[in-house]
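Quick illustration for those who missed Monday's session on complexes.
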Amino acid sequence: MKKELTLVALTTLALAACQPTRKDDYGWIKKGLDVASTQLQLTASEVESSGMFPRSIYTSGNIYFLTWQLGRDSANIRRVRQPAPDQLGQRRLCDAYDWTSGFFPGSLWYAYELTGDEALKAQAIRYTNRLNPVRHYRGTHDLGFMVNCSYGNAQRLAPNDTIATVMRETANNLSSRFNDTIGAIRSWDFGTWHFPVIIDNMMNLDLLFAVSKATGDSQYKEIAIQHAITTLRNHFRPDHTSWHVVSYNADGTVERKQTYQGRDDQSAWARGQAWGLYGYTSCYRETRDTLFLGEAIRIADMIMSHVRTNDAIPYWDYDAPASIETPRDASAAAITASALIELSTLVPTGEQYLDYAEKILKSLSSDDYLARKGENQGFILMHSVGSLPNSSEIDTPLNYADYYYLEALKRFIDVKKIKLS
Ligand code: GLY
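Prediction with glycine bound:
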């Protein structure tokens, strides 16, 4: 009996091996784009009259859950202003000065580019114009996120002189936050740090690279390069994970190394690692300096060996307790996927990065993460974490998870030369 079964199994295997490999029809990409277009259109029309931007869904943090995730007692847990009970589960909006304001217009641009749907383009223009006042703002390093993801994509897909002017003004304002002695751009204006620089700030450099290229003025690029070098020197640990916040004294020496959004000062906050990977990959693309490529490769390898989930969507912090209850961060996964796809095109051993990015994208495009049309308050992806230690946006959609998911799909389609018919 046992022998017969073995023979049957072997015959089945042999037959399977003779079948031509089933060509991937990329149904998961089509499904992701279909959901994305519907959700974005729905949200754009629902939010239109508010003059605001969709950011996430309001959640609240349970103190017992927080003490467990953070390994701290309740007295050491910060809690930002909690949403009112009737806000829970509702869409959270933000204004143009919020650090996430550029992502929704940016998602509309990517969705338009991927589908050719003119209605998406009209909404992309409308929501990008809503950000116009930000051109006069200097209060944060996040100007790169805000303006490059919105106006930057507009300039790529529907260029005009007004867009170029907004980008240049914003690059001037971002550059005004650069300190020559420290060699970095100041991130935040709040808190007790003397001169805080967060790993996320690597993401604002693409605006400076873009404006240098557009204007032929190298000063923006020089600032970006110096910021990246200073960050490389001080943000990374021997195992290639990074601190979230490094604060500097006036003479450029390090004042403190800490976390704000990670589990603890020595942990590897998942989105922070993704920001670093993305930022150094961009720096190599723009400079071809192998110093930056080496860092991008080291971070990529570290991420792929630190993820402890089967679906490649990391827990919100690589050092959070591994458990079914521990929130995963789809935003970190989407940013990582987008960066890995670009990295795969820059190195001879790129296949491993592309394969890993594909695994992430398939997970994000599955029912576990991709919203059903008309649900999830109009966001595309579920299950991200904004700032768990601040008890804010825990296991919720985030507009930047959606943005980097679409960017990663676009990059994947381009690299694989996929024709979606
Ligand atoms: N830049 C803030 C964050 O990643 O949450």
